[in-house]
């Protein structure tokens, strides 16, 4: 997740909420398609999944409720899913069920742009220009940071 720049994201709550929503949809796939075999999660979904497992009681209740059964997710499952084409299966089913790309870019700049666009009424030109300016500033700060410069937000 550090490669995606989530720790420096100007909209961490937005990114986290999207990742959690995608995780819930991934679990729903397991209920909707119980005979699909092992499905391989995206990195964002896996991060939420492993974090969810840190609260075992809540995890057990939630997975049973959302996926229709308890899922004992571990590294063995992930390796098996990778070998058996679990990512391609998940990608196909996710698109089919939810009409969305399975593994969209969730780097902080894409997330910032999406968050700003959703925060304003896109019909209002002034609000849209302000949102674009915020995203542009965030990109400038990140570029300077990568160049080793200290930038005040």
UniProtKB/TrEMBL annotation:
Classification via Pfam families: GRDP-like
Protein name from the UniProt record: Uncharacterized protein
Matching PANTHER family: ENOLASE (DUF1399) (PTHR34365), GLYCINE-RICH DOMAIN-CONTAINING PROTEIN 1 (PTHR34365:SF7)
């Amino acid at each position: 997740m550090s490669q995606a720049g989530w720790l420096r994201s100007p909209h961490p709550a937005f990114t986290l909420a999207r990742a959690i929503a995608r995780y819930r949809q991934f679990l729903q796939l397991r209920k909707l398609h119980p005979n699909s075999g092992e499905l391989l999660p995206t990195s964002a979904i896996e991060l939420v999944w492993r974090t969810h497992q840190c609260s075992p009681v809540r995890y057990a209740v939630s997975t049973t409720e959302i996926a229709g059964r308890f899922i004992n997710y571990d590294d063995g499952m992930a390796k098996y899913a990778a070998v058996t084409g679990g990512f391609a299966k998940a990608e196909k089913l996710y698109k089919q069920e939810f009409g969305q790309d399975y593994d969209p870019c969730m780097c902080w700049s894409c997330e910032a742009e999406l968050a700003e666009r959703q925060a304003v009424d896109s019909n209002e030109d002034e609000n849209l220009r302000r949102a674009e300016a915020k995203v542009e500033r965030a990109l400038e700060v990140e570029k300077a940071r990568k160049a080793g410069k200290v930038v005040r937000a």
